[in-house]
Specification:
By secondary structure, the protein is mostly beta strands. It is about 10% helix and about 40% strand. It has four helices and 13 strands. It has a 13-stranded antiparallel β-sheet with strand order 1-2-3-4-5-6-7-8-9-10-11-12-13. The longest helix is centred in the N-terminal third of the chain and has 13 residues.
């Protein structure tokens, strides 16, 4: 073996392995058979999934799961139970126990909530809340609530009775994994999800929405074909549009993925503007206001367009502010 090594090390020949490397190209990733796929409907279903991923869902599920506890299970803390700090504003629990209702609590959670209001010719409300946790609440094999991550949101609501003006804005960011029958039984994603999604909604006088991020479903629920969606879109109801905006389609794009990691992206009008000029990027294929998107499959543009009707969004009940009482400190916090 040693003589063979010396022989190879002394030779002047350079080994060329270029011929053995496969050429990279789209031929290695053929376009899949799309027979039976309705990508316009899939895009709408994906948006419906994303609109259901909010801090409200995570927060209310956690609050309801605590009702299954009992005295001393779980143990509650004023301050951060994980990293104690005298100045911490968190309330939390950290335990591994079984309650008198035979429900197991494992993990730790910490949260804050606050709401302020004023009255002067109307009402102004400002609420913020945040939940961080790695928790599991279960009874044997049944999971009532499981969350690992961070969820935060904020609400601003303004009502002016003198001018009959009202406006609300809601921002939610969820970065984590949610499972469990308490928050998900009646949702559009009952098996749970892993997500990193931010959602900005506004309404009252006019309605607007911006979604950015992704959602992975633990079961391929979207048309039975897709287990993930990704979105970077911004749009508004017709009454809120500027003259240069398009009523028929949003700015941005949305994608869905099959379990074998094949992505299908629908690209609408340009999402952002050129910062220097203040004008839209030159992006001819996507500037037509026709309600249709260019389809990319595995990053390869297809010839056919996919036309999507998103008008249902403005009548969807989820484009509405959360209940302000959800920002009130709980009895435990008081």
């Amino acid at each position: 073996m040693l003589s063979l090594f010396l022989l190879l090390s002394c030779t002047d020949e350079v080994l060329d392995t270029a011929d053995t490397a496969p050429e990279r190209g789209v031929d290695l990733l053929p376009i899949p058979d799309m027979t039976g796929m309705d990508l316009a409907t899939a895009a709408n279903e994906a948006l419906s999934v994303a609109l259901g991923v909010t801090t409200t869902q995570v927060w209310e599920g956690h609050a309801a799961s605590l009702e299954l506890g009992s005295a001393g299970c779980p143990d509650f803390y004023i301050g951060d139970p994980i990293e104690p700090d005298e100045d911490s504003s968190y309330l939390g629990w950290s335990d591994g126990c079984v309650s008198s209702q035979n429900v197991e609590f494992v993990g730790d959670a910490r949260w804050t909530s606050d709401i302020e209001g004023s009255e002067s010719g109307g009402t102004t409300l400002e609420g913020q809340r945040e939940l961080l946790g790695d928790v599991l609440v279960r009874d044997g094999s049944q999971t009532f609530y499981s969350f690992d991550g961070r969820a935060s949101d904020s609400l601003l609501s303004i009502v002016d009775v003198e001018t009959d003006f009202s406006r609300w804005t809601y921002r939610s960011v969820v970065d984590g994994t949610l499972r469990g029958s308490i928050p998900l039984t009646d949702s559009v994603h009952p098996e749970g999800y892993r997500t990193d999604l931010s959602l900005d909604l506004s309404g009252g006088d006019v309605m607007r929405a911006t979604l950015t991020g992704n959602v992975y479903l633990f079961k391929p629920l979207i048309q039975g074909n897709f287990d993930s969606m990704v979105v970077d879109m911004s749009w508004a109801e017709p009454a809120a549009l500027d003259p240069e905006d398009c009523e028929s389609e949003p700015r941005g794009w949305i994608g869905v993925r099959t379990p074998d990691a094949t992505w299908f992206h629908l690209v609408f009008q340009p999402r952002e503007e050129d910062v220097a000029s203040g004008e839209d990027y030159e992006n001819d294929p996507y500037t037509a206001c026709d309600g249709c998107a260019t389809l990319y499959v595995r990053g390869v543009p297809m010839e056919e367009l996919v036309c999507v009707d998103l008008s249902w969004i403005w009548s969807d009940a989820r484009i509405s502010p959360p209940d302000p009482s959800g920002y009130l400190p709980s009895l435990r916090e008081l």
